[in-house]
Amino acid sequence: MPNIIIKTEKLCKTFSSGGIQQHVLKNLDISLIEGDFTVIMGSSGSGKSTLLYAISGMDKPTLGEINFADRNLAKLNNDQLAVFRRNNCGFVFQQIYLLDNMSVLDNVLASGLLVNKNKRELVQKAKKLLMQVGINENAWSKFPTQLSGGEAQRVGIVRALINNPRILFADEPTGALNSAASDSVLDVLTNENQNGQSIVMVTHDMKTALRGNRILYLRDGVICGDLQLSAFSEKEYAERHEKLGTFLAEMGW
Ligand SMILES: Nc1ncnc2c1ncn2[C@@H]1O[C@H](COP(=O)(O)OP(=O)(O)OP(=O)(O)O)[C@@H](O)[C@H]1O
């Protein structure tokens, strides 16, 4: 039986500004499966990032429930939510927020030390993860400004993974990268997922979305499509591309 890691019930998010209410997420009932690489797609403004922020506990819903790893997020106050996020969530964004005055290794360690006080163990783990994403020893003492965009994003992924998150949340992780750098980042995400890491990623890019095994399509705050794919494999790229293309055409993408 697949393990449900996040379950939402009647999840709603409404923004109010200037006396006008905008209902961005409307009564969403979603179950996300542990181990999946779930992709959230939809047109601009459909509520993808809002959904990602709500289910990861970065923002509170207006109404409804979010059960994440058997915790009801609505019952947590802001401090408890911050601890919950630190222990359970990793985040990767389009903008890569590495600290410019710290080396690559220190950027990763700074995140890790928030949860694990055993520095020796942490250093070993950070180095292992950096190697895993293709950031070799000669780059560990470099500063973020000395890295390419793709390298910096791969360091960002390591920083997000250092505390063994239950889910890695990614919002347009390749949005600011050129094609080669984007492929290197997608290969890292695919590899992590194939090693068991659950990933939930927002993207508007089809090539990026092809890495997922489940595609949710959001339109006007409602999930109107849910496509299951097999785990990513280069061998069946053409077939996969066609399946996703057909699905997106049906969604009016
Ligand atoms: N903090 C906020 N305050 C007010 N409105 C907001 C806020 N955050 C998002 N919105 C509005 O909610 C709607 C959905 O935004 P969201 O960023 O979730 O869409 P998206 O599907 O991720 O879009 P894009 O693909 O363009 O990034 C938009 O109309 C946006 O202006």
From TrEMBL:
Keywords: ATP-binding, Nucleotide-binding, Transport. Residues 6-245 form the ABC transporter domain. Pfam families: ABC_tran. Gene3D superfamilies: P-loop containing nucleotide triphosphate hydrolases. One of its GO terms (molecular function) is ATP hydrolysis activity. Belongs to the ABC transporter superfamily. This is ABC transporter ATP-binding protein. It comes from Lysinibacillus odysseyi 34hs-1 = NBRC 100172. The lineage of its organism: Bacteria, Bacillati, Bacillota, Bacilli, Bacillales.
